[in-house]
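Long-time lurker, finally posting.

We've been working with methylated-DNA--[protein]-cysteine S-methyltransferase (Shimia marina) and I want a structural starting point before designing mutants. I don't trust myself to interpret raw outputs, so I'm hoping someone here can both generate the structure tokens and explain anything notable. Sequence follows.
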Amino acid sequence: MLQTTVETPTGPMTLTEEDGAITRAEWGQGGVGDTPLLREAAAQLVAYFDDPVRGFDLPLRVEASEFQQKVCDAMLAIPLGETRTYGDLAKEIGVPAQAIGQGCGGNPIPVIIPCHRVLGANGLGGFSGEGGVETKVWLLKHERAAGLLI
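Top reply, 14 upvotes:
Generated this for you. Predicted structure of methylated-DNA--[protein]-cysteine S-methyltransferase:
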């Protein structure tokens, strides 16, 4: 397991690579690693925080249950600048909305897998990342989805 830490406007974020794929993104300082994939992932993360339109094109692997993988796939399908509700994803996957909330909270690769784009039916919902809902709002504004918050 190799890691690199990137300074971002929302705090340091540590990216983890295992067997040629990014498997985790976590706020905070982590270990040190230098591989072509970690360099590329760090560069793409910096580019995203510079201009979110650049997006991500990285090999990802969600090492979790089949359900968690489905939730992450559904979040990855949400276009930049758009949001979905927990209920929207629940209908798509065929589970209760509360389960989607738990799946969003269990996202092992936040920002790259955009769990911040999933909102409650009547509000923001939660955010398990560093800074909580304030970081979620920052990311949505950064992606120019702020009109949805007003």
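Before you design anything, note these points.
The chain has two domains: 2-54, 66-149.
Strands lie at 2-6, 13-18, 21-27, 84-85, 118-119.
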